[in-house]
Amino acid sequence: MTTKIEKISPKIYKVTDNDKHLGTISTYHNLFHNKYIYLKFNLSDYSVNIPFSKIVQAEHQALQVMIDSNENPIVDFLLRNGFICKRHCYTLTVNKKDLKIEINNKLSLHFFNTESSDYRTCCQLLYKYYKQVHQSVSPLTANIDTFIQEVPTKTGYYSTNELGEIDNLVFTENNEIAYICSWDRFSSNNFIETILVKMFQNYPSIFFEADDTDWMAYQLLSYFKINKNNSFNTYIFPN
Fold first, then answer.
1. Does residue 2 register a pLDDT over 80?
2. pLDDT tens digits for 25-61?
3. Could you give the angle at the alpha carbon of 6 between the alpha carbons of 5 and 10, nearest 5°?
């Protein structure tokens, strides 16, 4: 069988196999992670081999696909066609019964919001951390001002070290831990426990996402008994 791919519009490729139309592959960009071109599939058959290098040559960028791990036919299709799984993201809603250990307040927390004098400092630190943990998979390409404008949460907490410097930081919105970051692995667990105590005092359950490339978020994940069979994965086809 001969599978062909043809660009039919600025953002759509047509896929045929022995002149049989199999569907389309759409492309799009993420301005926060603009190193890659992202793909979405609308195919009737995922058993074929597709020359994805043709898209790389046409777009002059490596390819990225983000998909749920339970989409087995598409996952198999990606791996067979040369994509590499680079990241697993776990989305959780948990309660205190899901905890592996008993947690306690261990650190003093400082609250902040958009009116706080240190709000922009917290955003700048988040930007630095976010850029660091995404670099190996999908580098952050947005500048800091764009990033701060898009930060979805306006409140959070941080802890400080003996010099008064922020060493752990979390952005929250109601029962969601939207972002968590740390620059001190020695105090990071104490910070996580203190944050969890506070969150569970206010809400019966909490929600967060954790990438396995984000060490602090993954450390938060490790506090809970969860099923890791399901994840939202990132696949890369290199240029």
1. no
2. 999 999 899 999 999 999 999 999 999 999 999 999 9
3. 130
Q: Which stretches of the chain are DSSP H helices?
A: 53-59, 72-80, 119-134, 144-150, 188-202, 215-221
Distance set, CA 83 to CA 21, 145, 191 (Å): 23, 33, 37
Proportion of the chain above pLDDT 90, given as a percent: 91
d(CA 231, CA 118): 35
Domain architecture of the chain: domains with CATH: 3-88+232-237 (3.40.630.30), 101-221 (3.40.630.30)
Q: How much is the pTM?
A: 0.91
227 pLDDT tier (thresholds 50, 70, 90): confident
The alpha carbon of residue 67 and the mean position of all alpha carbons in its chain are separated, in whole angstroms, by 12
CB 225 within 8 A of CB 100: yes
Which regions of the chain does DSSP assign to beta strands (E)? 3-9, 12-17, 20-28, 36-43, 62-68, 84-95, 110-113, 155-160, 166-173, 176-182, 205-211, 232-237
Q: Is 159 in contact with 182 (CB distance < 8 Å)?
A: no
Binning pLDDT at 50, 70 and 90, where does residue 1 land?
A: low
DSSP state of 1: -
Q: Kindly report the CA angle at 48 between 44 and 49, in degrees rounded to 5? A: 135
Residue among 106, 40, 49, 129 nearest 81 (CA)? 49
SS3 236: strand
